[in-house]
Amino acid sequence: MQRSIAVPVGAGFLALALALTSCSGSSEPSASSEAEYVSGGTFVTRITDDPGDLNPMKAISPDTWSVLTLAYESLIYVSPDGELKPWLAQEWTETGTEVVFTLKEGLTCADGSEFTAQTVADNLNYNADPDNATFSYGSVIDETVSATAEGDQVTVTSETNSPFLAVNVGTILMVCDAGLADPESMSDTTNGTGLFDLTDVRPGDTYTFTKRDDYTWGPDDVTSETVGLPDSIEARVVTDESTAANLLLSGEMNAAAISGADRTRLDGAGLEFTGTRNPAGMMLFNEKEGRPFSDPLVREALTTALDREEVGTVVADGDPLESISLVTKNPLLCVVDPPAWSLPDTDLDRAAALLDEAGWTLGADGKRSKNGEPLTIKFVYNAPTSTHAPAAELVKQTWDQLGVTTELVANDAAAWSEQLWSTFDWDTGWIVLLPGSPLVLSTFFAGGTPEEGGLNFMFVDNEEYNTLVSEASSATPEDTCGLWQQAETELIERFDVFPLADNILPTYQSGAVFEQPNGIQPTSIRMTN
C-alpha cells in the first residue's frame, strides 16, 4: 500500500511533513494499455485549499506540495513501491559519508536555462544552511552536509556517517539558478525542471500548468512525446467533497481524494482509485510539564482503556488497518511488517488502576481529581474530516466511564497552528505525522521544542529513544534499521504515540491513470479518454 505525505499540523497545517504496493479500487494505475491512452487535453486534479506561497523551500501545507510537485523534480524518483529510480541523476554511488550523483544529459529549466551539477550543489548547500531555514533543513539535510560540482557530477559529503544520505538529499526538490538567486521570486510562480510549467494563476480557484516540448529526462524514459500525456494540468480548488465527487462522475475532474460518504457513489459507478496509507487514528500527547499526559501512567491508562476495534472502525471510515510503522511516506525506510512492537489489549480495570496509581482518584461525583484539580483532557481533531468527530465521541464515552472530563475540540487550520505551536493548549487527539524515514520522525520526538525553535511540539523527553536515535543516525547501513526499529518500539512502549488504526485514503481516477508515490506524479499521468 502506498504511503502518503502529510496530514496537517501547524502553520495552517504542517506537512508532517509527504503500504508497500499500490492499492486500487478495481485495478492498479498501470492497468490501461498504451493503446487506450489518449494524448492531449487537460488533466484536472483537486486541491482542497489555495496553496498560497509557492516557494518550494518554504512550503508546508499538503495543498502547496500538491502544486509544487507538478513543476519541481529531484535527483531520485521514488516509485509507489519504494524503489529508487533515476530522475535528474542517471546514477549514483554512495558510502556512509559520501554520495556521488551523475546527472543526465540535456537538463534544462522551464525558463530555458541550463540545469547543471553546480545548480544541484548550490541547491543542497542552500538547504544545508541553517540561516535559510528551508523545509528540508533539520530533517534530511543540515550543516554537516556539503556539496561540490565538477562536470556532470555532484559530490555530497557528510561530516558524520549518514546511512540515508543518498535518498535524503536525492529527494529534495531542485530549483533553478534564478530561483536560488532570488527565492522570493518563487512565491507566485515556479522555476524548476519539471515536465509541466506554471503558466496561469487564479488564486483561490485554479493553477494551470502547461507541458513543455523539450523534456527528455523523466523517470522510466518519459519525454514530452510519451503517449497519453496531457497538454496541461489544472490544480483546481474544490473545498466541498461532494462537489468534487460530482465532478469526477461527470468527467470534469480526473483526480480527487475522497474519504467520506461520497465514496459509495464513486465505487458504485466503477471508478478506480489509488490509495495512500493514512494513520487516521494516530494519537499524540502533549507531555509539557503541568499537562496530564506528562505522566506516562496517564498515557498508558487512557490508551489501554480504548477499544481499538470499535474506535478504529469509526476513525478509519469502516476499513481499519493495523499500523505497522510510524514511518508512512515513501521511501518507507526501515519499515518492517509485522512491527517489532505491539499495542496493549483493551482493559478498563487496568486503566482505572493506573489512574489510581498516578494519583487521580475517583470522587463521590464520579469524577477523577488530584490535589483538588479535575482530570480534564482536551481532545483535538480536524473539523473537516468526517470520521474524526464520531470517533472522538467514542473516546469520550470510554473515558467518561473512568471519571475523566473530556473536552472535544474541532480544529480549523488556524486553531491547529495556535494550539500546537503557540499556546500548547491541547492534550491529545487525532494528530498525524507522515514521515518517510525514521530520521525525519525523530525531528518531532527527539528534537527541540517550538520554544527552542524545533518541531517537538509534544515536548517528548524520552532518554532511551534519544540514545537510540543518536546510535542509529551514525550506524552503518547494515545496522541502522535495527536500531531505528528499536527506537520506534521505545516510543510505542512509553506511550509517546499511540497508532490506534490506519486506513487507506483513496484518490479516485476518472478519465486518466497515474502513479501516486506520495502526491500525484505528473510524468506518470496517462489520459484515457
UniProtKB/TrEMBL annotation:
<dbReference type="Pfam" id="PF00496">
    <property type="entry name" value="SBP_bac_5"/>
</dbReference>
<keyword id="KW-0813">Transport</keyword>
<dbReference type="InterPro" id="IPR000914">
    <property type="entry name" value="SBP_5_dom"/>
</dbReference>
<protein>
    <submittedName>
        <fullName>ABC transporter substrate-binding protein</fullName>
    </submittedName>
</protein>
<feature type="signal peptide">
    <location>
        <begin position="1"/>
        <end position="19"/>
    </location>
</feature>
<feature type="domain" description="Solute-binding protein family 5">
    <location>
        <begin position="83"/>
        <end position="430"/>
    </location>
</feature>
<dbReference type="InterPro" id="IPR039424">
    <property type="entry name" value="SBP_5"/>
</dbReference>
<dbReference type="InterPro" id="IPR030678">
    <property type="entry name" value="Peptide/Ni-bd"/>
</dbReference>
<comment type="similarity">
    <text>Belongs to the bacterial solute-binding protein 5 family.</text>
</comment>
<keyword id="KW-0732">Signal</keyword>
